[in-house]
Design brief:
Helix content is about 0%, strand content about 30%. With about 400 residues, the chain is an all-beta fold.
Amino acid sequence: MRLRSFNALIAFGVAIATLTACGPSVPSADPRDAQAPVTGEDTAASPTEPEQEPGAQATPAARTGLGSPSPSATPSGTPRGSGTGNPSGRVSVPAAGRAVDTSKPTRTVGDGTAASCTSAAVVRAVAAGGIITFDCGPDPVTIRMTATAKVRNANGPQVVLDGGGKITLSGQGKRRILYMNTCDPLQGWTTSHCDNQDHPRLTVQNLTFADGDATGQGTDGGGGGAIFVRGGRFKVVNSRFVDNRCDRSGPDVGGAAIRVLDQHDDQPVYVVNSTFTGGSCANGGALSSIGVSWVVLNSVLRDNEAIGTGANPARSGTPGGGSGGAVYCDGNTFSVRIAGTVIEGNDAREGGGAIFFVSNDRTGTLRIENSTLRRNPSRGFQTHPGIFYLGAGTPTFTTSTIR
């Protein structure tokens, strides 16, 4: 299918009530035919931007560490000022997107020393569930993960990891860091409708995820170099994702930092006051999903890349991929809202240097507010600067710079 040319691509000052959505794949024709002339730039005022551990399947004891919870506890809704996100972003955050109160944790990783904060302790705590904080001493600590921490679906129903702004979980370039999958029998089936259940509810906040790598992880299509989620609920607050990876090729694999499939009752994934840099994957150098809505607020996505070749569906003779330098969304009816956010310097070998958005049934919507998208080259095709969009009508741009 050949896309029609778009004139008057950018709409100004349009307020809509619904969230925006990302959808499935590029039309079956050579997607380079979809290149549409770009004839405009939204120049409305934009925000100024500063520049398996062994035994992990067993349910641990109720508490995995005796350290004081206070060093990393977060009162509800309190920003930590840890340098994450877009400090010029001023978009209001709804209650559903705010940090979880961790002042009364279920369990603590560490006993007050850096040496006590180990991969094994993190894996045990995540498997046990509940509200998890860290007590690793007064200085920043990097915990080098020797196994992926996996959520046990029967434990929780809330699972919260709060690093207090001082903890980095590193995959060491060898493994995915965190995994939740309500449809994975190895993690325990808890309902007959695993793809649409309200638990576990996973939150990561005040943490850094670095050097995660999901290359070769094929469960449910793979992807998610730092975090993979299917089902339940998931949100990210005040966190940083640095130099994460997933498979270099494939038409639909994606999410160097985060991959999400399914959320309870199609509720959105919140990404709030967070930063994504240096991610690299076939598609979605930062975020990737199928059939999932997103709300990205006051965040920064910079210098990520989609390095596959051949788009989706893959052109003959190619392995596929290369779309969504920062964000890759595929599916039917869902929405994506990006507000108070900077997306810059991302790169896609095929389509959507900043955002690749395809709603297969053309019901999905994309809404960008009070944001800056710039210098996000689409090497193959785009419908707007740095964006490839197939959805309901055209995207809504409000008080944003798109160039």
